[in-house]
Design goal:
Blueprint (H helix, E strand, L loop, with lengths): L48 E5 L2 E7 L6 E4 L7 E5 L3 E5 L5 E4 L8 E9 L5 E9 L2 E9 L9 E7 L4 E8 L10 E7 L5 E6 L10 E3 L3 E10 L2 E11 L3 E7 L10 E5 L5 E3 L2 E4 L3 E2 L5 E4 L10 E7 L8 E7 L10 E2 L11 E8 L6 E7 L11 E7 L10 E2 L12 E2 L5 E2 L5 E5 L4 E8 L6 E7 L1 E2 L2 E3 L2 E4 L4 E8 L2 E2 L6 E7 L7 E6 L5 E2 L4 E10 L5 E10 L6 E10 L1 E8 L7 E3 L2 E3 L3 E6 L3 E6 L3 E3 L3 E8 L6 E5 L4 E16 L5 E2 L3 E4 L4 E5 L3 E4 L2 E11 L15 E4 L5 E11 L3 E4 L7 E2 L10 E8 L3 E8 L5 E10 L2 E8 L6 E9 L2 E9 L2
Parallel strand pairs: 37-45, 46-54, 54-61
Antiparallel strand pairs: 1-2, 2-34, 3-4, 4-5, 5-6, 7-8, 8-9, 9-10, 11-12, 12-13, 13-14, 15-16, 16-17, 17-18, 19-20, 20-21, 22-23, 23-24, 24-25, 26-27, 27-28, 28-29, 30-31, 32-33, 33-34, 35-39, 36-38, 38-43, 40-42, 40-44, 41-43, 44-45, 46-49, 47-48, 47-50, 50-53, 51-52, 52-54, 54-56, 55-57, ...
Length: 827
C-alpha cells in the first residue's frame, strides 16, 4: 500500500544477481550422458531454485519488488500461484518447481499491487492496479488452466478522481448460493471511504462500487453463515482508531453496520510520518482477515490479525481477534507470537489463512526474536491454531535463514524505507499445510521466496552409489525433523531421470515401507540392476509427499552404473585451463566415464591471464606428461600443478631501466633498476629520485635521494613500479653539426664567474659522457652530465648559485678520454 506514482523509480533496484545457493547442481557432469537438471528450464520464464537449510526447502523465485500474495487451487493441491510487484507472477503445477510468466493486461498501464484468488472451479482471478493517463482503476484477468495462460482483462472500476490503492480479492469457493462470486475491495483516493465491488459472472463484468467506511487497509474474505456455505462476505478496514468489520449475508449486495473489531495501537516507532521498525522500515496496523468455511467445530468463525504495540515501550506484536457470530461481536485480542513479553523485539507484517477442511488457522509474520540484543536480524515465523484462534502452537521458523532487512530496503520519496507492506500465506486444501511467500534479504537484496508451513525436513544419503551389472545398492531416505504442528503421513516415491537403453534398473523400498507417520524416521530405497545396463550416471529423484500431495520435496541422488568419476582440476582452479577429450575446462570438474575407458587429458601451458599473469604447467598428480591418457578403472582424482608468473610492470618516462616488463616466477628473487641516475632524453636531462610502487608487495622509495637505483625483490602478485625522475632543459646544446677530430674539454667561460658559466666539450665517439664537479678537497658536489651522447660538439651550463666562493674542478670522462680543469667562483 504505497503511492503508486513513485513505484517506477525503483525498478532499477530490482536487478541484482542472486548468489550461489545451496542446491544440488548436476549440470557439471560431462561424459557419456548428462542427468536431467534438477529444475528443467521453462519455455516462458525462469524456474525456482532450491535453497536448502537444515534439510528444509525454500523456493527462491527471483528478484522482485516485494509485496507478494499467494493463492492455492481448491481443486488441485499441487497448483499454487503467487505474484510480486510489479508483475512477477509464478505458478507451480507439481508443488515443487515454479515457473514465471507475465499475465497480459492489454490496454492497461499496470501500477502494481498484484493479488489473486481461485473460485471453486479452479479459475484464477488476478488483479492489478492501473493508470491510463489521468484515469486510475482496478483490472482483473483470469486463467482457467492454473496460471499457464490468460483469458481476458476486465476493468473493475475506473476514475479520474484519484488513485486506487491496495485492492484485495476473494472468491466464493463453496457450493453455496453465491458459489464462484468474486469480491474485491480497495481504497479510493480523492473521495471519502473505501470501495467494494463484485462479479457474479466469472469476472466478465463487475457491479458498480459500493462505498464503505474506513481510511486504510480494505480487506475482503468469504465465510460460512450457519448452514449457508459462503453466506458471509466480510469487509475490514482501519478506521480512525479501531479496525472495523462489516458483513454481507446476501452475496455482497448490501452490508450490515461497521463493527469495531479491535482497538489499534500503532506498531513500531514513527519515522517519516509512518509506523516503522528497524532502520525506518515502514509497516502498518491494517487488518488481514480470513474466515472459516469448513464443516469443523469452528465453521463460520472469522479472524482478523494485525501488528500492534502493547502498552509500554516499542515492542510490536502480532494480535488476533475472532468473531463466532458473523462479525457481530469480537473476542479479546490474543497475542500470537510466544516470545516472552517485555523483550524489545519486533513481530510485524502478519498474514493469515484458514484451512477450509480442518478449520486450522495459520498465521505467519516477520520476527526479530533471533536477535534480542540488537532487534535487527529477522526470520519468517508461523503458528497454527486448532481451536478457533483461542490458542496457538509453539511458534516455529517458516524459513531457517536469518537475514538483515536493512540490506534489502528500497528508499521511498517520503524518507521511509520499504521492503513491501505485506506478504502472504495460503492454506492448501486437505493437506494440513500452507504455502507462504515473502521477501527475504539473505543475499543482501530484495528477493522472492516461497515455502511450506507446517513442513517436514528431508534428506537422502549417500548422494551417490556405484553399481555394476546385476548389482544392488541402498539409500537412506530420512525425515529428521518437522516444523510447526506437522502431522500425517509422508509417502515416498522414486524415479529415474532417464530409463536405461539396455538392461533394467529396479527401484523399491525395503520391506514395502514407503511411508513415515512418526518423526524422525527413515525408509530404505533399494536399487537393483538387472542384465547389462548401459554405462552412465543416472539420477534418481526421490520425492516425499504429505497428505493430499503436499508438502512435496524432491532430493536427487546419483547411481553410477558401470562408471566411475574422474575428478579433475588444477591448483589454480578457475584460472588455469586443461582439456579432457579435447573439451576445455578451467574449474574443477567431476566427470563420468565407463569403467575401462581411456581418457585424454592435457594441461594447457603457458596460460596467460589478462596481460600480466602467466600460469606455467609443472606436473600432473599421477606423474603423467603434459598431455597423456588416463585409464578409468576406479574413481580417479587428478590435479595439474601450475606455477604462477607475474609481470613486473615498469614505467619510466626517459627509459634507462632494466628488469622491467618481464615475467618472473612467483616468490623467485630478481633485480630491477635504472642504468644511471641521470639521462638525457629528448634534449632534457632527467635525474632519478626513487620508485613509486602500487600493488601488493611493491616497493616505494623511503626518500627522494635516488640511492636505490637497483632493487632485489620477489613477486607474489602483479605490481607496478614507476621510476621517479625530475627533468628540465639540461643546458646541453650542440655547438655545430661538425664532428670533432679529437676529444677536448675547454676552459669554462666566464671564469671567474657568479653564478653561471659555460663548459664546452667535444666528443669523438658515441657513448656515455660524464662531467663531475669537485670541491677543493676532491669531494663530488655535482654530476653535471651523466648520459649516453652522440659524437659532436656541445656546451653545458653550470649554475653555482648554491655553492660557496672558491676553487672547484670539473672532470670529463668519455670512452678513453679524461681531462680536468679548474674554475673559480667569486661572490
Amino acid at each position: 500500500m504505497r503511492i503508486k506514482a513513485f513505484l517506477l523509480c525503483f525498478i532499477a533496484l530490482l536487478l541484482f544477481s542472486p548468489l550461489a545457493r545451496s542446491q544440488n547442481d548436476y549440470s557439471k557432469f560431462q561424459s557419456i550422458a548428462k542427468p536431467s537438471p534438477f529444475f528443467a528450464p521453462s519455455a516462458n520464464g525462469r524456474t525456482g531454485a532450491l535453497d536448502i537449510t537444515n534439510d528444509y526447502d525454500n523456493f527462491y523465485l527471483g528478484g522482485d519488488f516485494g509485496e507478494p500474495y499467494v493463492a492455492s487451487n481448491p481443486t488441485d493441491p499441487l497448483n499454487t500461484v503467487c505474484a510480486y510487484n510489479f508483475d512477477g507472477f509464478y505458478y507451480t503445477l507439481d508443488g515443487f518447481s515454479w515457473t514465471k510468466t507475465t499475465p497480459p493486461f492489454p490496454g492497461f498501464s499496470i501500477l502494481g499491487d498484484p493479488v489473486m484468488t481461485y473460485d471453486s472451479l479452479g479459475t484464477i482471478f488476478y488483479s492489478q492496479l492501473y493508470q491510463n493517463g489521468a484515469t486510475y482503476g482496478v483490472v482483473v484477468n483470469k486463467s482457467t488452466n492454473k496460471g499457464q495462460s490468460w483469458v481476458q482483462a476486465v476493468s473493475v472500476f475506473s476514475t479520474t478522481v484519484g488513485l486506487c490503492d491496495k485492492e484485495w480479492i476473494a472468491a466464493d469457493q463453496t457450493g453455496g448460493p453465491y458459489s464462484n462470486n468474486v469480491y474485491i475491495g480497495w481504497r479510493q483516493f480523492g473521495s471519502s471511504g473505501m470501495r467494494f465491488s463484485r462479479s457474479t459472472n466469472h469476472g466478465l463484468s463487475w457491479d458498480a462500487p459500493t462505498l464503505l467506511n474506513g481510511n486504510q487497509g480494505a480487506y475482503v474474505c468469504v465465510g460460512a453463515h450457519g448452514n449457508i456455505s459462503g453466506g458471509c462476505v466480510y469487509y475490514a478496514a482501519l478506521a480512525s482508531g479501531p479496525i472495523q468489520v462489516c458483513c454481507s449475508t446476501d452475496g455482497g449486495v448490501t452490508f450490515g453496520p461497521q463493527i469495531n473489531a479491535c482497538a489499534v495501537s500503532g506498531p513500531g516507532v514513527t519515522c517519516a510520518g509512518r509506523n516503522t521498525v528497524k532502520n525506518c522500515i515502514r509497516i502498518d496496523p491494517f487488518p488481514r482477515m480470513a474466515a472459516d468455511n469448513s464443516f469443523s467445530a469452528t465453521r463460520g468463525n472469522v479472524y482478523v490479525v494485525w501488528c500492534n504495540n502493547p502498552t509500554g515501550p516499542d515492542n510490536s506484536d502480532i494480535m488476533l481477534v475472532r468473531s463466532t457470530d458473523f462479525g457481530t461481536t469480537w473476542s479479546s485480542p490474543v497475542r500470537v507470537n510466544d516470545d516472552p513479553s517485555g523483550i524489545l523485539v519486533d513481530q510485524f507484517m502478519p498474514t493469515v489463512s484458514v484451512d477450509n477442511v480442518t478449520g486450522k488457522v495459520i498465521v505467519a509474520w516477520y520476527d526479530s526474536r533471533v536477535d534480542p540484543a540488537n532487534n535487527i536480524l529477522t526470520r519468517i515465523y508461523g503458528a497454527v491454531s486448532t481451536d478457533g484462534g483461542q490458542t496457538f502452537s509453539a511458534n516455529a521458523n517458516i524459513s531457517d535463514v536469518t537475514f538483515n532487512p536493512n540490506l534489502m530496503v528500497q528508499g521511498q520519496p517520503g524518507g521511509e524505507n520499504y521492503i513491501g507492506d505485506y506478504f502472504g500465506i495460503s492454506s492448501i486444501k486437505n493437506s494440513g499445510t500452507a504455502m507462504a511467500v515473502w521477501m527475504d534479504g539473505r543475499n543482501s537484496g530484495l528477493a522472492s521466496y516461497a515455502g511450506y508451513f507446517p513442513d517436514y525436513a528431508m534428506n537422502v544419503s549417500p548422494s551417490v552409489r556405484f553399481v555394476h551389472n546385476n548389482d544392488s545398492a541402498t539409500y537412506t531416505v530420512k525425515i529428521p525433523s518437522i516444523k510447526g504442528p506437522y502431522s500425517g503421513r509422508v509417502r515416498f516415491t522414486a524415479a529415474l531421470d532417464t530409463a536405461p537403453t539396455s538392461g533394467t534398473i529396479n527401484l523399491s523400498f525395503a520391506n514395502g515401507k514407503d511411508s513415515i507417520t512418526a518423526f524422525p524416521d527413515s525408509v530404505t530405497l533399494k536399487v537393483k540392476t538387472i542384465g547389462t545396463v548401459n554405462s552412465r550416471l543416472f539420477t534418481i529423484n526421490v520425492k516425499g509427499s504429505g497428505p493430499g500431495g503436499v508438502p512435496v520435496h524432491v532430493r536427487p541422488v546419483s547411481i553410477m552404473v558401470n562408471t566411475d568419476f574422474l575428478t579433475i582440476g588444477t591448483n589454480h582452479n578457475g584460472s588455469a585451463q586443461y582439456t579432457v577429450n579435447s573439451a576445455t575446462y578451467s574449474a574443477q570438474e567431476q566427470l563420468v566415464f565407463p569403467i575401462g575407458a581411456n581418457v585424454s587429458v592435457h594441461a594447457i601451458s603457458p596460460h596467460l591471464i589478462g596481460t600480466s599473469t602467466k600460469l606455467i604447467y609443472v606436473s600432473w598428480s599421477d606423474g603423467g606428461d603434459t598431455a597423456h591418457t588416463v585409464n578409468i578403472n576406479n574413481n580417479i582424482n587428478l590435479t595439474a600443478t601450475y606455477k604462477a608468473q607475474f609481470k613486473l610492470i615498469m614505467n619510466s618516462v626517459p627509459g634507462n631501466t632494466f628488469g622491467g616488463n618481464i615475467f618472473y616466477d612467483s616468490a623467485a628473487s630478481f633485480t630491477y633498476g635504472v642504468l644511471s641516475k641521470t639521462v638525457i632524453f629528448n634534449n632534457q636531462l632527467y635525474t632519478f629520485h626513487g620508485w613509486a610502487g602500487t600493488g601488493p608487495g611493491s616497493y616505494t622509495s623511503p626518500d627522494s635521494s635516488g640511492a636505490d637505483t637497483a632493487i632485489t625483490t620477489n613477486m607474489s602478485a602483479v605490481y607496478v613500479e614507476t621510476a621517479r625522475w625530475t627533468g628540465g632543459p639540461i643546458g646541453i646544446v650542440s655547438n655545430s653539426t661538425e664532428l670533432p677530430a679529437i676529444y677536448k674539454l675547454y676552459q669554462n667561460y666566464p671564469n671567474p664567474f657568479n653564478p653561471s658559466t659555460m663548459i664546452n666539450f667535444d666528443i669523438v665517439k658515441d657513448g656515455n659522457v660524464k662531467i663531475v664537479i669537485y670541491d677543493i678537497l676532491g669531494r663530488v658536489v655535482n654530476v653535471l652530465v651523466n648520459a649516453n651522447m652522440q659524437a659532436g660538439k656541445y656546451r653545458v651550463d653550470f649554475n653555482a648559485q648554491n655553492y660557496a666562493s672558491g676553487m672547484y674542478f670539473y672532470k670529463i670522462t668519455s670512452d678513453k678520454f679524461t681531462d680536468v680543469k679548474k674554475m673559480l667562483i667569486l661572490k
